[in-house]
Amino acid sequence: MSDLVKSERRAAAAVITYANPPRGTMTAAGAAQTYAAMKAAVEDDTVRAVVLTGGLPGVFIRHYDVGELADISDVLHGVVPLVAPAPSGPGFADLVDLIAAAPKPVIAAINGLCMGGGFEISLACDLRVAAPDVEAIGLPETRIGIFPGGGGTQRLPRVIGEARALEFILRGRTVSGAEAGEMGLVHEVAPDPLARALEIAAEFAVKGAEGVAAAKRLTRAALDRPLSDGLADERRSFVEVLKTRSAQDALRAASSPAVSIQQV
Fold first, then answer.
1. What is the value of pTM for the model shown?
2. What angle do CA 76, 82, 85 make, to 5 degrees?
3. Degrees, nearest 5: CA angle 130-9-217
4. Where are the transmembrane segments (predicted)?
């Protein structure tokens, strides 16, 4: 538990809730606290999936705090001197990298405004569920003279393709939750995104953790290396997962004559 972040268990899922009232913006302190909660969930073997959501009504993570960015810009331009050392510990980039690399599924339950750094956090997640009435989802940074610097320019093209991502980012577009579903920015649209995310998370409680971790790692790396390298890694990893007890037990159960393929 921290000032900005609440972490709780819901069965085999860890639910990490970000608040920072009254506006719900991400900050350096918020990133560090979210990182700590995320790291604890990753290191807990009893956690099989992680759900990220917002703790303020109508806000997932509004965006990164513009005032903090302005302060950094002032220091870089010599407008003001750096009077204090930069905060130590993990920052925003570390947070999104941890989410993407986590060896277990991470689901964004987008319950409200999700722009800029907030949307970049959701893009680092494996699955995204949004409420249809969310007012704004997107990357509006070019409207204020900057661009998405937390992974948005790299992850969005992988989600919706280069052409649509360019149009989306260059124009600084935001869309509603319902529109995000139509565009493929989110995987599902649900009236209660947290409840739906927890339903999805429950699926992973009965899946082999090693198999899920390998599947996530291999799929995320697929576009970043030659096909031959990916296939070789996949074959090695497949053998390693076959050696695990969870895979052995699941395969024996699935091979029973009483079990049909639809039940697996």
1. 0.91
2. 115
3. 65
4. none
| Amino acid sitting at position 32 | A
Compute φ and ψ for 110, nearest 5 degrees: -85, 100
Distance of alpha carbon 73 from alpha carbon 51, whole angstroms: 33
* Catalytic (active-site) positions: 120, 141
The CA distances from residue 53 to 57, 88, 99, 213, 233, in Å, are: 11, 25, 13, 22, 33
Query: What is the largest distance, in Å, between two alpha-carbon atoms of the chain?
Result: 74
The number of residues in the chain equals 264
Lowest average pLDDT, out of 72-76, 162-166, 244-248, 252-256, goes to 72-76
Q: How confident is the model over 57-108, as pLDDT tens digits?
A: 999 999 998 888 877 777 776 765 555 555 567 999 999 999 999 999 999 9
Band (125; pLDDT cuts 50, 70, 90): very high
Residues 6+ apart with CB under 8 A from 153: 147, 165, 169
The pLDDT tens digits of the residues spanning 169-182 come to 999 999 999 999 99
User: In 3D, which of 151, 152, 150 has the Cα closest to residue 172?
Assistant: 152
DSSP 255: T
Q: List the domain boundaries for the chain.
A: 5-204, 209-263
Mean pLDDT of 210-214: 97
Cβ proximity of 136 and 113 under 8 Å: yes
What is the C-alpha separation between 157 and 242, in angstroms, rounded?
34
Looking at domain 5-204, its CATH class is alpha beta
